[in-house]
Amino acid sequence: MSRPQPLSGFPELLPRQRIVEQQVVDHLRRAFELHGFANLQTRAVEPMDQLLRKGETSKEVYVLRRLQADDRDASDAELGLHFDLTVPFARYVLENAGKLNFPFRRYQIQPVWRGERPQGGRYREFWQADIDIVDLGELPAHYEVEVALVVADALKGLPLPKVRMHVNNRKLSQGFYQGLGIRDTEEALRIIDKLDKIGRDATAKLLIDGVDATPEQAEACLKLASISAEDSSFVDEIRALGVADPLLEEGLTELAAVVDAAAAAAPGFVVADMKIARGLDYYTGTVYEVFIEGEEHLGSVCSGGRYDKLASDGKNTYPGVGLSIGVSRLLVPLLQAGKLDATREVPTCVLVALNHEDDRPASNAIAQRLRARGIPVQVSPSAAKFGKQIKFADKRGIPFVLFTNDEGTQIKDIRSGDQATVDLDTWNPPAEDLHPRITAA
Amino acid sequence: MSRPQPLSGFPELLPRQRIVEQQVVDHLRRAFELHGFANLQTRAVEPMDQLLRKGETSKEVYVLRRLQADDRDASDAELGLHFDLTVPFARYVLENAGKLNFPFRRYQIQPVWRGERPQGGRYREFWQADIDIVDLGELPAHYEVEVALVVADALKGLPLPKVRMHVNNRKLSQGFYQGLGIRDTEEALRIIDKLDKIGRDATAKLLIDGVDATPEQAEACLKLASISAEDSSFVDEIRALGVADPLLEEGLTELAAVVDAAAAAAPGFVVADMKIARGLDYYTGTVYEVFIEGEEHLGSVCSGGRYDKLASDGKNTYPGVGLSIGVSRLLVPLLQAGKLDATREVPTCVLVALNHEDDRPASNAIAQRLRARGIPVQVSPSAAKFGKQIKFADKRGIPFVLFTNDEGTQIKDIRSGDQATVDLDTWNPPAEDLHPRITAA
């Protein structure tokens, strides 16, 4: 077999890059669990009819077939790989509703697959980390505040470029358009969603052509979209535009609550931004998009919103609010550019050197004593010259080599060359050396 | 949408079952890392020509197609979902050989997919946890001892039924057959692999018909297959059969080393068992199969072996040794039978009760103070009557409810009803209540 080539759109990591990804995912998991979110893992496949319910993404689905399917399988439903974690979660909630306690909060960290053409920051297989809170019948608005705070907490303390969450509220925008006298408020939202791409003039024209807006109405929509603030001062700015509508008022109250709570809990993280529209129809309240500061053109690295009908089985409706962090989208470019790295490429903290191959059982026993106290250890591959054994450690970034000589058990820090006799039952590496750490360039 | 039905062969877990699975996987991961194994995650897909290299499993592959593939994609390689973690690992090693340090030890915990008919303990999507050590050119035999010890360590301390690892060595069996005068030793191995299913007489007949064995040779093969021991006493038993062959001697030495080391490090876990053959052609040294004791008929829950040619690019050859733990195969039946459970269905240790909805920001602040010390907390969904808030905690198994009254901050253990005034900056739950724990029925 000749050397295989990477598959475009299916990024894979080297061991030291994977250590970074693993620690970031561990950090997210820990944050989600501290906020009481339970983990779920759904199967990778869904019946095609489930996946095609949202028209918009249907073109991206990978369809499965069994290589040797036979007649007896005719009854098998056609299956495809999930393209997000929301569709499987909604299906899971309906399937297991009788066994779940609502409000139900879950996180889910899994790969998703989209058959789209791979290009800058877009992959065919990538990891997402989702949180959602779903309730039965009614979902209180305070959860729209909470999920923003959970994500603020989860992204805090990670060695990532500075990110900010831009929030808006569907009721606010749609109420404003309604108050202006625009009828097709959903279409107006979809047009405003294009503002950053096509510019003010083209957007105004689309509003005039697409939703029968007067030039004055279009101008008011653009004025609204230009408002942003880190606190609830946007409320007065919007009121100053002179539009009155009960839905607008609801939206103002809800958005102010999100922004004020976030300003108190995570100063500088959340900004109210009236041009955030999110193209998808199913959002009904707060909508969120997180951008890398100064790199907004790359698109959001985390997004979500409130949907009054995450799932419904005809009898019951399950409203929800959630956010999805694009783990691969955030990390893979930083890893590939060498902007994030790990202090070593193995978990190993100590290499136990061998004087002679016959000592291997004794060295294994020494390794087990350290492992029993949580220290990752491996034993040297061979009783080569001591310099060669040190080189083995050095190449992998293993900081300590343990060896036995006439003076007893010695541990050498191969970075400094410092060496000392140690007691195997009490010696500990410095806390920062116990596990690999992430370093940022 | 009506209530969706589960898909046969794609097991999914309820939140409390998932907590068990998550903790088992965490335990395996920790054990592998303590032994210096680095984690890898490979993509879910491989080109079909890679997947079809092993004829045996080709019928089980799920092939992918993009729903809206167009002409420009004609150059795309046909892709399928991986059916194990060995084929992707071998491909990864070849693809990245220049960037890896050998010997390279990695673990990989991912789902795999097989399109086979779902039946008792067989799934179409299931999780495996693999460890492998791979080297460039030569792989010392001591790694065949080591991987057995790592798996012994990894399975130790899990609330699972008692399992035992049955080991044999290909050189031993093939050397013995060779010494007897049987030519097609690989076919003889494949026949002996069927012994448990078809019995002694049918096996003897197959040996006579299939590899031209005399009745005496067939009898000697069956005698060898009947030998098993928890220590290296099997060596003398085999020698007593009077067959001499250099390959047999190598196998005896290597298997004795594995069994003796394992008997010292993990007494009772490993048993030398000469009827273990493993049907696959590519094993060349030690072979391993782990069975649940008394449930050997269910098949192995972990298996593997040494292969001298895990991968080869024509110039270099990469021998390896590895084991694969069938995580779903081990856990799903136990979870579905209710034999394993978790002490609660959420990570949450403390529910912060609300006196009034206006107190939510203050309650969030209290929750954050506890989270900062690693305690998973959530705030009550509403300022309902206190009894209702306790019921919310009780239904999920959350052990503690925190509330504020005239006497200050109180924490109630809702299982005992005990209640005490606490200092938020020093209170800790008992260690066994901090996180959910696994319980075994």
TrEMBL record, chains A, B:
What InterPro entries does the annotation carry?
A: aa-tRNA-synth_II, aa-tRNA-synth_II/BPL/LPL, Anticodon-bd, Anticodon-bd_dom_sf, His-tRNA-ligase, HisRS-like_core, HisRS/HisZ
Q: Which SUPFAM superfamilies match?
A: Class II aaRS ABD-related, Class II aaRS and biotin synthetases
Domain Aminoacyl-transfer RNA synthetases class-II family profile: residue ranges: 20-347
Name the chemical reaction catalysed here. tRNA(His) + L-histidine + ATP = L-histidyl-tRNA(His) + AMP + diphosphate + H(+)
Recorded E.C. number(s)?
Answer: 6.1.1.21
What name does UniProt use for this protein? Histidine--tRNA ligase
Species name: Glycomyces mayteni
Gene Ontology molecular function: histidine-tRNA ligase activity
Keyword terms of this UniProt record? Aminoacyl-tRNA synthetase, ATP-binding, Cytoplasm, Ligase, Nucleotide-binding, Protein biosynthesis
UniProt keyword Aminoacyl-tRNA synthetase present = yes
Domain of life of the source? Bacteria
Q: How does it assemble?
A: Homodimer.
| Family named by the database record | Belongs to the class-II aminoacyl-tRNA synthetase family.
